[in-house]
Design goal:
The complex is a heterodimer of chains A (about 300) and B (about 290). Chain A is α/β, with parallel strands linked by helices and about 300 residues long. The C terminus of chain A is likely disordered. In chain A, helix 3 crosses helix 4 and helix 4 crosses helix 5. In chain A, the strands form three sheets. In chain A, strands 5-6-7-3-8-9 form a six-stranded mixed sheet, sandwiched between helices. A four-stranded antiparallel sheet of chain A has the order 11-12-10-13, covered by helices on one side. Chain A is built from twelve helices and 13 strands. With about 290 residues, chain B is mainly α. Helix content of chain B is about 70%, strand content about 0%. The longest helix of chain B has about 35 residues. The chains are: A alpha/beta (about 300), B mainly alpha (about 290). Chains A and B meet through helix 2, helix 3, helix 4, helix 5 and helix 6 of A and helix 1, helix 5 and helix 6 of B.
């Protein structure tokens, strides 16, 4: 369980995280979505006590991170930036972390096995590819067998197979009852991985909901219509309770009615239609629109 | 760059059981024991430590050997004043200054390598008590530096005296001031290395911290030369380099510094410890406040 309350972080005049409140519950994969630079990594660092908040609080299992008696046994984290000395072997990197929390050496072998790095355990981490480095980071996160896991952009630098592996791992960790918090700027990746989602833009909370609700709401259907009798049809549709916007090319976007209902209303009022197309916005588009500064608050209203 | 086809790596096994861990529960809290053990692992598992310590050994023992061998060779050509003032102990410790630089670089790296590699974030996520982290890092590095320094200064002294023996006067550890000079020089080296470590904490960048460290040893005396002689004489005794040189000498090497009054070896050493402690406290304060 992670709880953030009014979390705020400023860097000079820039507000990186702005009054952010959210909860991450155990047993679910919670996606942390936002465009690059929206404050995800800063928030992750504040959860881990690496960055000091300018306002608000954040707790893990009801306690501030610095009060955890054995931090690695309770929280494991993969941070976005690499945190491995290039001259140290994978094994020794994990060893120096294990020692801080009295984690037995045999656990190092277990996590290396789990991420598939056993054969290169004695190689210097500087020789690792991006994908191997990422897996070493995941091994470090799992070292203390923690109940809370933070992954900042875990699929960065991974190929499709690696991405699939991370996805399965996250789901598995959540199914074991752990709290799993994963950041990403890729909406589609999160749509298939996360059960719950926290969306931020410019450091502010935009939405916090179950993934399925978020998808349904953010890809709400609309119908595109073309007609020589635009004025008549617009009046009819508005009277029927639809939201109507006229596109710059003369097409009409209708929200709140199905294509069938629009066609029937047109026939009833003897309106000729040249086009009647159901539209479904892509999740990626919806996400980009939502996190765009101009629609920040509209997003919050419709989803909060 | 397929994960499964990277040479030497097995396919990851998400079907394996991450939950089936073998970690026995522990009561209590992480503490200095855990952190010191981890700091020791960090220090011994990077090549830069081995390299820097090897170069330090060459500097302290090698330069001491060269200096004493040259003295022995040229003894008959030397003037009477040089012969009267000859301090065989100080001569065998001639590598002190380069040793300070080498060990100081290791002290800087012990901290700045954590910043340049990003390991500092892993370190502080594993142990958020920053004062304790820094104290353990300084303690472990200090212990390694102390053992290294003492072994090297005694080795340089013993080898140097062997090279002098038979041709020139030489010293034994039983003579007045000799044991103090040799053991004290080891202590001085250690404190100077911790001084460098503290600069690493404050500055965080390798190049910047090494520059600041070398400047505080080498550039301060140069700056002082621009001042009137009266000020030079008053200030010289506070310079780390002068304090170290005073410690390495069995007699007061006043003639080297234009008859400026120097502190006694242990007073000078206490002042050097004061500088280092002050820098460590400033570093600790910054370290516990700054974002990692």
């Amino acid at each position: 369980m992670i709880e953030a309350r009014d979390l705020t972080k400023r860097y000079g005049a820039t507000v990186a995280v702005d009054g952010l409140s959210f909860e991450v519950k155990p047993g679910l994969v919670t996606g942390f979505l936002g465009p690059n630079g929206s404050g995800k990594s800063t928030t992750m660092r504040m959860i881990l006590g690496l960055d000091r908040p300018d306002g608000g609080t954040v707790s893990v299992g009801g306690r501030p991170y610095r009060d955890l008696p054995w931090p690695l046994r309770e929280v494991g984290a993969l941070l976005e930036a690499r945190s491995v000395h290039p001259g140290r072997s994978a094994y020794n990197h994990l060893l120096m972390l294990a020692e801080t929390n009295s984690i037995p050496r045999r656990r190092i072998g277990e996590v290396l096995e789990l991420v598939g790095l056993t054969d290169v355990a004695r190689k210097r981490a500087g020789t690792f590819s991006l994908g191997m480095g990422q897996r070493l980071g995941i091994a470090a996160a799992l070292l203390g067998d923690p109940g809370v896991l933070l992954f900042d952009e875990p699929v960065n630098g991974l190929d499709p197979e690696g991405i699939r592996w991370v996805r399965l791992l996250l789901k598995r960790l959540a199914s074991e009852g752990r709290t799993v918090f994963v950041s990403s700027h890729l909406m589609n990746e999160m749509a298939v991985t996360a059960d719950y989602v926290v969306v931020i833009g410019k450091g502010k909370l935009i939405a916090q909901s179950a993934m399925s609700d978020f998808i349904a709401l953010s890809t709400a259907q609309s119908v595109r219509v073309r007609t020589p009798q635009a004025e008549t049809l617009t009046g009819v549709l508005r009277a029927a309770g639809a939201q109507v916007t006229i596109g710059h090319d003369g097409s009409i976007e209708v929200a709140g009615l199905t294509a069938a209902a629009v066609g029937e209303l047109a026939a009833e009022h003897r309106v000729t239609l040249h086009e009647l197309t159901p539209q479904r916005g892509s999740l990626e588009e919806a996400f980009m629109e939502m996190t765009n500064e101009t629609v920040e608050y509209r997003g919050a209203e419709s989803l909060a | 760059m397929s994960m499964a086809t990277e040479p030497g790596t097995a396919a990851p096994t998400p079907s394996g059981a991450p939950a089936a861990s073998s970690i026995p529960a522990r009561s209590g809290h992480y503490g200095p024991l855990q952190l010191c053990r981890s700091e020791w692992t960090k220090l011994r598992t990077v090549r830069s430590t081995i390299w820097t310590l090897s170069v330090t050994m060459l500097a302290v023992v090698g330069i001491g050997a060269i200096a004493t061998a040259v003295t022995a060779h040229q003894w008959r050509q030397g003037g009477i004043v040089d012969r009267i003032n000859f301090d065989p102990t100080a001569r065998s410790l001639a590598g002190l200054f380069l040793g300070e630089i080498c060990l100081g670089v290791l002290g800087v790296l012990a901290v700045t390598a954590e910043y340049s590699s990003g390991t500092i974030r892993a370190t502080l996520a594993a142990a958020p008590n920053r004062r304790m982290v820094l104290a353990c890092k300084a303690a472990v590095f200090g212990a390694v530096a102390l053992v290294t320094s003492e072994v090297l200064t005694f080795a340089a002294f013993l080898l140097g005296q062997q090279l002098l023996k038979g041709t020139t006067p030489y010293a034994t550890l039983g003579e007045p001031g000799v044991l103090r000079a040799v053991a004290g020089t080891g202590l001085t080296l250690t404190v100077v290395a911790l001084f460098a470590l503290a600069l690493g904490v404050i500055i965080r960048h390798t190049a910047g911290a090494i520059a600041a460290f070398v400047a505080s040893l080498l550039v301060l005396p140069l700056i002082l030369q621009a001042f009137p002689v009266s000020i030079q004489h008053g200030a010289l005794k506070y310079l780390p380099l002068v304090i170290a040189e005073r410690m390495a000498a069995t007699t007061s090497p006043a003639s080297d510094f234009g008859n400026a009054a120097l502190f006694s070896p242990w007073v000078g050493f206490a002042i050097l410890c004061g500088y280092t402690l002050a820098l460590l406290l400033i570093g600790g304060w910054l370290f516990s406040r700054r974002d990692a």
